[in-house]
Design a protein that fits this description.
single chain, two-stranded antiparallel ribbon, 66 residues, 2 strands, 2 helices, alpha+beta
Length: 66
């Protein structure tokens, strides 16, 4: 894991072979921004532009993680 990443998991829905659900939890907004500046993230964006049809992003803020 990267610094600032609290949790990373992925799921493939049982009812769709074409969907992927990624869950990333960051300790701060700043950590997430730093992640977006990494080389591997930029490479992923290039691949997504070529192969991914649609992306839906949902952000949630919580005050504490137990």
């Amino acid at each position: 894991m990267e610094p600032g990443n609290f949790k990373y998991e992925y799921y493939i829905p049982v009812d769709s072979q074409n969907d992927l659900f990624l869950m990333k939890m960051w300790v701060s907004s700043e950590s997430q921004v730093t992640h977006g500046e990494t080389e591997h993230y930029k490479m992923l964006q290039t691949l997504k532009n070529e192969y991914v049809i649609a992306v839906a992003i949902e952000k949630y803020c919580i005050s504490a993680i137990s």
